[in-house]
Amino acid sequence: MSLSVKPKQSFIKRVLIVVGIITFVIVFALLFVNAITAFLLAFTAILFAVFLRGLSDWLSEYTGIPSGWSLVIVSILLISIIGAAVWWQAPVVIEQVRDLRSSLPAAYENLKEQVAQYSWGLALLEQIPDLDAIFTPSGQISSISSRFFTSTLSILGNLLAVGLLGIYLAVEPKIYARGVAHLFPDSKRERISEVLVKISQSLRWWLVGRVFAMFIIGIFSTVGLMYLGVPLAVALGLIAAVLNFIPNFGPIIALIPASLLALTISPMTVVYVIALFTVVQILESYLITPMIDRKTVSMPPAITIFSQIFMGYLLGILGLVLATPMVLVSIILIQNLYVEDVLGGKTDNEFSTKSMDEKADKTVEEIKV
Fold first, then answer.
1. Considering the chain, what is the average pLDDT of its residues?
2. Could you tell me if 205 and 296 are in contact, meaning their C-beta atoms sit under 8 angstroms apart?
């Protein structure tokens, strides 16, 4: 009798364990899905903190100003520069963006008229819904307008949260790095600190490259579009600059409104606009990006594009924007913690971290304290 009871109890125990594991996985998945936006916003705050800390460290290194005061100076300078730019160009940009919203539908209709001249164009237009059918009072435009106020407050709240969190992270980054390192055994903490420094340096240089490229592309695109006589050149240049933060897909998206407005002038102007954007992207790809790549890791284009498609489909625009820096972090973690530490191998030049100098070693020592 006792022999038959024990197997039954053992079976019930195994069933309970399996049910517990399944329940834990389901709960974790639900929490992850619902908290993914918060995770992405936290990662955005980390990027902002890395950017602020990079500028303040550079100022402190070359001027001897204490790091705390250099962070205050950098923050004030950034706020002043952004405020001056908004005060100087905000009226022009706001007016052009307003005109752009009203001009794009007309440019789209003009494109349809041009395409409709060809037989293949007629077949294509049959598959594309008319703008009036999309933006009807009972359709999408009504939904957008009803949620506009809530969405605006949500965006402003998210920006405020990211800004405050980024500033707090930038004030004392070593405290948080030390906290992460202390989650691991004593024998692994130095290695974890070293990897965290590599991630910080690579993200810092990637951000420097992105911001510099955005500035260059914004200036060149605006000047070029003005020269070509394309309307709303300032707004289009601003769109090109902002979207350039998204590698690969950003420039293509920015080209669409510029081409539509260029078509209102002539088809040849569209060719000139495409040539302009191509030349500007070649300048960015073969001059700015290689200089930055010497300071960070090489990211294979196929992996970057796949991650952008995957995260854009899964998480929307925020996933698309953050896909590249998240891939950068993933590559560094895989290189150091798996390929080198677990497999005991060496990463080749194409996938290896390219800068771990004396300053990085000093930072690791400070984290360990």
1. 75
2. yes
Q: Please write the tens of the pLDDT for every residue from 33-56.
A: 667 878 888 888 999 999 888 888
Percent of the chain with pLDDT over 70: 66
Q: How far is CA 212 from the centre of its chain?
A: 15
Say whether pLDDT at 102 is over 50.
Answer: yes
Looking from the CA of 78 toward its CB, the CA atoms found within 13 Å total 14
pLDDT of residue 292: 65
Q: How many whole angstroms from its chain centre is CA 271?
A: 29
Three-state DSSP state, 317: helix
Judge contact between 52 and 72, C-beta under 8 A. no
Number of Cβ within 10 Å of residue 190's Cβ equals 15
Does position 191 have pLDDT exceeding 80, yes or no?
yes
- Give the Cα separation of 179 and 289 in Å (integer): 33
Cα 351 from chain centre: 21
Burial class for 21, CB neighbours closer than 10 Å (0-12, 13-18, 19+)? exposed
The closest of 97, 55, 50, 43 to 79, measured between CA atoms, is 55
